[in-house]
Every structure is written in C-alpha cells, then in structure tokens.
Amino acid sequence: MRTRRRWVAAAAVAVIMGTVLHGGIAAAESNGGVRVMPLGDSITEGTQIPGGYRNGLWQRLAANGYRVDFVGSQFNGPPSLGDHDHQGHPGWRIDQIDANIVRWLQVTNPRTVLLHIGTNDVLQNYHLATAPSRLSTLVDRITATVPAADVFVATIIPLANADQESKARSFNATIPAMVQSKVNAGKRVHLVDMHAALTTADLIDGVHPTAGGYDKMAATWLTALRSVPGSIGDPGQPARPIVGVQSGRCLDVPNTANGTQIQLWDCHGGANQSWTHTAGRQLVASGGKCLDARGQGTSNGTQVVVWDCNGQTNQQWNVNANGTITGVQSGLCIDASGLGTANGTKLILWACHGGANQRWTMAAATS
Question: Do domains 2-226 and 242-362 have the same CATH topology?
C-alpha cells in the first residue's frame, strides 16, 4: 500500500504540472479495462479545460457500465477524471504525430484509437494541399502497427477565424472518402463527424472548446464508440445507488481521492452515490474509482474506500441475493460501522452475521 501511495503522490504532481514521467512514457494508470488511446493535439490534451473531452467521456463510460483504460505517454487532467493517460500534444501537426506513433502504439497496444488531428496544420498553414495524404499515411501506420484496433478518425472541430474555418472545411471534406478507402481495404477505420457536433459558440478562444464544447465532443465520441461492438468492451449494469436496509441511506463517496472511506449519507441521486457492478465484479463509482478493501485487508474493521481501479481481488465484490455485499478476497461483508445509521457513518468490512447493517439494495438506475 505504501508503494501505491508513493505512486499517487507522483501522479498528483504530474496532473498539476502536466509533466511526463519515466523518460517519455507517463506513469500509467490502468484498471485492466479496454485500452483506448485519445490521440491528437491540444484539443485532446485539454487546453483551456484540463482533461478536455476526456472528462465527459470517462464519466459517460463509467455511468454506462463500460470499463476502459485510457493509454498514452501523456498524463494530465483534474482529480475527477478517473484515468489521466492520453496522447495529446499541444501545437502538434499530423506529421509530428506520425513521426512518433509507432513507438507509442508499441508501448501501449491500444484496442481503440480516437484520432482528432489537423487543426495545427490549418492554423500554421502547413502544406495544406498535402495534409489529407499525411492523414491517410498516419491512419495506415496506425492500422499496420495495431491491426486489431478500431481507429475512429474525426473531422476537426470548427475554427472562429473565417479563413481558417474555410481551410478546415476543405480539409474535412477529404476525410470521408479516405476513411471509406480504408474500410474498402478491410481496415477497422470509422468516421466521426466532430465538426458537425460543435459551433464557433462552443469555442473559448476561437480554437479550443469551452467546457460545454468539450462535453459535446465526449458525447459524440461515445455515440461512435457504442456503434462499433467491442471497441469499448461490453457494458456492465447501469449506475445505481446502493441503499442500506437498516439506515435507508446511500453509499456515498465524500471525494474522489484515493483512500477516501465510503460513508452513509442521505440519498440524493448524485454521481457520488452511483455505482456500477461490472462483469469483473468491481463496484465502480461514477467518478471512475473502484470500491476497495484498504491495504488489501481481510480482517474485521478494514476500511472500505475508493481507489484507482486495478482489477485485484480486494476490488472484487459479490452482490448476493440475501442483500449482503461480500469481498471476493476476504469473504467479509460490507458493514455500517457500529450499527450506525446517521449521515457520515463509515463503512468497513466485518464478519457476516445477517444483520440489517450488512444488507443493501441496488436501487433504480440513475443514468
């Protein structure tokens, strides 16, 4: 557990400073889910709004029962973003991404790639006549390196400057035929019309989206991903509150920091009280963190906390027909400490005894 705490401290610095660790490869977060690489420039990185579209996409995936693992050599975003890994590079053009893509793919081996690139080619007026062929070459390099991956190629979002927007539209107009040519060749390439999802009113500085604009991107990515079976795995159950039989109060995450102990609180339908029971028997909060037996504890009194999802058995739970929730590793029941029913009562593991403070109901879905 001390090792995990040291990693979290280092990761926190990376989130705040936007630094890259370990000689160019970020200290990766992984929950064992379907590996998805967000790939592109500052719009993928999240300039102006840290995390960018990845915030809303992560929340939607978790709420709909999908377990994904964002991958890439970069690492940034707010604490509420459950996985900070990505491959977004502010200021980069298509050729710069292409020069590095094979190494990145070999390191991370993504199952799915979300590609939004070309904005800086337009902004820098960089050999625009050949930009479509550079994009085609990049897509070919991705499919050759990870042939089993689904590659989602987005048109670039609008630009506020009229001349630059005209050039962006000309570039975008070439993408559907390019994507279709890859499909005709048997490649797993898909078109995403991201330009149509936003307007210039969704831009904070004429180039980068507002929070609402990034959220529109997130919704558009999710729709595209769900249209391709397997690209983000199979969903578990929808997010639902877990309500104590004795207290009538909900399992509540006070904040998303690793190690935060779960408590009872009046049910209010918020995201911090919504849980998804996945096919891997994890209980995932809508913020993307997993219910965890702290320190891999197996004794009475072990704290029940949230932690980055890692797939270990101390994060696996059986939701039983008698209303108990038992740890796969410990066999102990989730228990309202001291038979407590008040707001703020902490949850622990305890030997199962059938009491009402150890019985829970999964309420109606919240999303």
Answer: no
Is 3's pLDDT higher than 60? no
Q: Which residues contact 9 (CB under 8 A, 6 or more apart)?
A: none
Treating both helix axes as pointing N-terminal to C-terminal, what angle do 211-226 and 53-63 enclose, rounded to 10 degrees? Answer: 50
List pLDDT tens digits, range 190-228: 999 999 999 999 999 999 999 999 999 999 999 999 999
How is residue 270 annotated by DSSP? -
Q: What is the pLDDT of residue 14?
A: 36
112 strand-pairing partners = 36, 150
Q: Give the whole-angstrom CA distance, residue 187 versus residue 180.
A: 9
Q: How far is CA 33 from CA 1, 176, 243, in A?
A: 22, 30, 27
CA distance 151 to 149: 6
Tell me yes or no: is domain 2-226 CATH 3.30.930.10: no
User: What pLDDT, on the 0 to 100 scale, is given for residue 149?
Assistant: 95
**Cβ atoms within 10 Å of 342's Cβ, excluding its own:** 12
pLDDT interval class at 94 (50, 70, 90): very high
Which CATH number is associated with domain 242-362?
2.80.10.50
Instruction: Return the domain boundaries, the chain.
Output: 2-226, 242-362
How many residues are present in the chain? 367
